[in-house]
Amino acid sequence: MRVGIVGGGQLGMMLVEAGASLGVDCITLDPAADSPAARVGPAIQGTYDDPAALARLADGADVVTYEFENVPVDGVRDLEGRVPVLPPPAALEVAQDRLAEKALFTDVGLQVPAFAAVDDLDGLRAAVGSIGLPAVLKTRRFGYDGKGQAVLRHEELAEDAWRAVGEVPSILEAFVPFDRELSIVAVRAADGELRCYPLVENHHREGILRVSYAPAPALTDELQTAAEAHARAVGDRLGYVGVFAIELFQAGGTLLGNEMAPRVHNSGHWTIEGAETSQFENHLRAICGLPLGDVGVHGNVAMVNVIGQEPDAAAILAIPGAHLHSYGKQPRPGRKLGHVTLLADDPDALRERVLQVSRHLTDA
Ligand code: AMP
């Protein structure tokens, strides 16, 4: 099998690596010559909307997929005539627009924070009136890692918030006093079979994921069952094939949908060492029509992101149960450069190991 991947970042890199041992040859497309995926497999250098580059990617591929959600939808739709594109581009369309995403969640019975569409400053003032404060203003499109967002606490700061997000179509969302942030990573096959990894607890700072715990501490069957039902409903509605993630807020016993990623997800990186089958392998299995892999977990697992600056690799690797993944990217403040997966026999040992890793991370 041969898979063309739009995007050559770290997610592409880990897909290529998973493909190698499965006998699935992957090729990536990325504007950068030195993309993380280019370190580990064949890569085409080109922009995501370059028809010639996309055609080269599709040439000889059995299926085309993508590793980030801001892929221009028209470009991949054009490929559909010659090669299957999975997940279906309709999933991209929904995930690229926070309004469409919220409409889908609501439609399938996943509650979301109160929200209103905002198209201009007057609209923002009206939304503040209906939603109340505090609230979060988020651009409808192209937001990631907390970018394109402003928390609004005082009505008189509405203009600042509107400027901060770039005066583009947005949504205003009620600020949720959640207990914790969770995500569910699921894989869906073409025949509708769905498998979910256990809910993961995620810790963010400055809008960037820092640490994930899998399974989420004190995870109950009720919560897992509820999250899986939401994942199933979203997957079925989109006719989804491949891995996707839904980010959730937990408030008491209630789960609220925040956003979905139509791709492998940072909160699923722990599955490489921590699960029977990694999210990367399962994504390839699903889009290649192969049987889905077991999603069982190896004990207590955590993932710590390496942000901004490379740590001393030897110091990290000296920590028991630690596995370092470096993406080979140039250091830059706020940039994800790698991650560390940690395994431990019990939750206390795991937390201690997370602290140990954190001490070696400069910008963590
Ligand atoms: P997002 O890009 O939507 O995932 O938002 C980035 C982070 O901002 C989330 O992981 C939360 O920590 C926080 N956040 C986003 N939306 C809300 C909200 N409605 N209420 C409280 N915190 C939020």
Features:
nine-stranded antiparallel sheet, binds adenosine monophosphate, 12 helices, four-stranded parallel sheet, 364 residues, alpha+beta, 31% helix
Based on secondary structure, the structural category is: alpha+beta
Radius of gyration: 20 Å
Uncertain regions: pLDDT < 50 for 5+ in a row? none
Instruction: Tell me the overall shape.
Output: globular
Give the helices and strands as they follow along the chain: EHEEHEHHHEHEEHEEEEEHEEHHEHEEH
Question: What does this protein structure show overall?
Answer:
With 364 residues, the protein is an alpha+beta fold. It has twelve helices and 17 strands. The chain has helices at residues 10-22, 51-58, 73-79, 89-95, 98-107, 121-131, 158-164, 221-238, 271-274, 279-287, 313-317, 347-359; strands at residues 2-6, 25-30, 43-45, 63-66, 115-118, 135-139, 149-152, 170-174, 180-188, 194-196, 200-205, 208-214, 242-251, 254-261, 300-307, 322-326, 336-344. The strands form three sheets. Strands 9, 10, 11, 12, 13, 14, 15, 16 and 17 form a nine-stranded antiparallel sheet that branches. Helix 1 crosses helix 10. The two termini are 39 Å apart. The relative contact order is 0.12. Bound molecules: adenosine monophosphate. The site of adenosine monophosphate has 14 residues, from strand 6 and strand 14.
Give a brief rundown of this model.
The protein is of the alpha+beta class. The chain has helices at residues 10-22, 51-58, 73-79, 89-95, 98-107, 121-131, 158-164, 221-238, 271-274, 279-287, 313-317, 347-359; strands spanning 2-6, 25-30, 43-45, 63-66, 115-118, 135-139, 149-152, 170-174, 180-188, 194-196, 200-205, 208-214, 242-251, 254-261, 300-307, 322-326, 336-344. The structure holds adenosine monophosphate.
